[in-house]
Write a structure and sequence with these properties.
Structural class: alpha+beta
Number of helices: 4
Number of strands: 2
Radius of gyration: 19 Å
Number of domains: 2
Distance between the termini: 30 Å
Shape: elongated
Helix content: 25-40%
Strand order of the largest sheet: 1-2
C-alpha cells in the first residue's frame, strides 16, 4: 500500500505521465492526474485548468448577440455572475 506522496513519486507513475503539472491562474503551478489510458494518435493530456464559475459569461453572451451595455446591465442586476479570482494564502 502506498501513500499519495509515494504514488506521485513512483517511477512507474512518472514514466507513464500519470501526473501533469499546469499553471493555474489562482493557485500557481499545480499537479493534476492525467488520464489512465492512452490512444496511439491522441494527446490525452489536460488542455488547461477548469474555468472559474461564470468565467466566460461575457464572451458567451456577446456571441449570441448581446451588446456590451446589455451584458453590463445583466452583471449589475445579478443575472450574470462570475467568480473573481482570489489569491490563496499559505
Amino acid at each position: 500500500m502506498q501513500t499519495i506522496d509515494q504514488v506521485l513519486s513512483d517511477p512507474q507513475t512518472l514514466a507513464r505521465g500519470m501526473v501533469v503539472e499546469q499553471d493555474h491562474p489562482v493557485l500557481g503551478k499545480i499537479k493534476l492526474p492525467n488520464l489512465p489510458f492512452r490512444f496511439s494518435e491522441c494527446d490525452t493530456s489536460p488542455s488547461g485548468p477548469a474555468p472559474l464559475l461564470g468565467q466566460h459569461n461575457r464572451e458567451i453572451a456577446a456571441s449570441v448577440g448581446f451588446s456590451s451595455s446589455e451584458i453590463d446591465a445583466m452583471e449589475r442586476d445579478g443575472v450574470l455572475y462570475s467568480e473573481s479570482p482570489v489569491g490563496v494564502q499559505s
